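Minutes, project check-in
Item: structure for the 279-residue chain
Input as provided by the requester:
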Amino acid sequence: MFRRITFVFCCLCMAVFSIQPVWAGSSDLSAFDGLSGRLTIAGGTAHIPVMKQAARQIMEHNPDIAITVAGGGSGVGVQKVGAGLVDIGNTGRALSDEERDKFGLKSYAFAVDGVGLAVHPDNPVNNLKKNQVKAIFAGEIGSWKQVGGADRQINLYTRDEASGTRSVFWKKALDKGPVAVEANVIQSNGAMKVAISRDPDAIGYLSIGHMDDSVSGVAIDGVSPTREKAKDGSYPVVRKLYMNTKGEPGKLARAFIDYLQGPRGAQIVSENGFISVGQ
């Protein structure tokens, strides 16, 4: 059985975010003039920083709108929007034909993201061959000494099977290879970053948009997991981030989607370490 480690973050709780004045008077925000009501969003955790920033701007512009954002992972996003529990369900992967047909979902891409391999900042290992990565996650390499590090056990961290981040890493970095049952299962990108930052012997993976100095990115075959490398196509473990609605979106959801796909949305995407689909 997998060991499940849970980290609780306020950003994953359903909450209306504090309002900060940002870009007041933006012409893009005029689409929200005259609108009111509540917009609910849940799903992929890589999306959260972008969703939060857009929500702050919109609610500052129009206090009659309340936007709530929750995480849970891509699987949760599909299930909740499919059941009509939220207006927008976020996924860090494309919908399957089965999901699309079962729930009548429509997808709207807004960003490109990489999924980066990461270790603790004190770990000297900063480059691995792809076959080494696959062997580590399969449990065939169990010591950092085998890949140029200290004579210490590798502590493996992965995401649950409903995670879009996991799906992309499993397909593009592991070639759909096995993940050792001893791996610690982490529930979000934010939790993965914290887990790795606290464990000197950790290795895991997370959205490039969530990576910072608290973890150290590991190159695969000499290519580092950076926004620039993902954008120019040299880093191969990339995916699109999607917003999904059940049928055609309502007026408020439509305005939110258009905002994130527009020029101000592209700026938010870029500021949070992702690549706009328009770039």
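Outcome recorded: The first helix runs from residue 48 to 61.
No further action items on this chain.
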